[in-house]
Automatic annotation (TrEMBL):
Organism field: Periplaneta americana
Superkingdom assignment: Eukaryota
Protein name: Mos1 transposase HTH domain-containing protein
InterPro entries reported for this sequence: Transposase-MT_Hybrid
């Protein structure tokens, strides 16, 4: 199964070639079948690439959790658990 990033790359490539969003979706549906991105997602990415976007990464969403797992954090959590069983 193809990943979202791969399909976004296809949308980016075809958009650069002047192919329309609905036509891109039609082609992707024929190739990827049930694993294809939805028409709405294809149109969203098509619009982003037309507007000059080059990155395949999703935008960060407000309130999205940021986590950093380090040895120090792991040790601190382990210590809290051990002290408060």
């Amino acid at each position: 199964m193809e990943t979202g990033k791969e399909q976004q790359g296809v949308v980016r490539f075809l958009t650069a070639g002047g192919v329309g969003g609905r036509e891109i979706h039609c082609c992707m549906s024929a190739v990827y079948g049930k694993h294809s991105m939805s028409c709405l997602r294809v149109l969203e990415w098509h619009k982003r690439f037309r507007e000059g976007r080059v990155s395949l990464q999703d935008d960060a969403r407000p309130g999205q959790a940021h986590c950093a797992i380090t040895l120090a954090v792991t040790a601190e959590v382990d210590g809290l658990v051990q002290r408060n069983r």
